[in-house]
Write a structure and sequence with these properties.
It contains 8 helices and 2 strands. By secondary structure, the protein is mainly alpha-helical. The protein is globular, with a radius of gyration of 17 Å. The N and C termini lie far apart (52 Å).
Length: 160
């Protein structure tokens, strides 16, 4: 395999530096990449599964080519007229799903780093919005920010 593409794995199993490096390699080799982002309000209103589907639909709409077949981690997209296969643990079993996982995580991490300056004290650049001890401590100290998901249990606990 060319370059470092053989190192592509489930994004959760890679260091941030390795994800960034592999993201560049994936972008270099991919025929096309589409990104889909939904708001925290959409997640709160519709739930994480529907939000994930919506983000995938947006990613498909932003893809510069029409795919013949979709390989998707766990979920399916019933509203899409493209052949597809949901694969349980797909980000661990399928190179293209793992690559998409890396691109998505790198994009999300970059968005969260950008929010760090807008919401000082929360440490978004460090924890990227995940429920780390530092994040939970900031929530307790500062309360939820405007971008926190109200459906996230630690945020619910702070608000109640």
């Amino acid at each position: 395999m060319p370059g470092r593409i053989a190192e592509v794995r489930d994004s959760k199993r890679l260091s941030p530096t390795t994800r960034e490096e592999l993201c560049l390699e994936i972008q270099r080799l991919a025929r096309g990449i589409g990104i889909g982002v939904v708001s925290h309000e959409f997640i709160d209103t519709n739930g994480i599964v529907e939000a994930t589907r919506q983000a995938m639909l947006l990613a498909l709409a932003n893809l510069p080519l029409r795919p013949d077949h979709l390989l998707i981690d766990y979920l399916s997209l019933p509203a899409v007229g493209v052949a597809q296969k949901p694969i349980l643990y797909g980000d661990s079993l399928c190179l293209s799903i793992a690559a998409a996982s890396i691109v998505a995580k790198v994009h999300r991490d970059r968005l969260m780093c950008g929010q760090d300056a807008c919401y000082p004290g929360y440490g978004f650049a460090q924890h990227k919005g995940y429920g780390t001890p530092g994040h939970l401590e900031a929530l307790q100290k500062l309360g939820p920010s405007a971008i926190h998901r109200r459906s996230f249990q630690p945020v619910k606990d702070c608000v109640e």
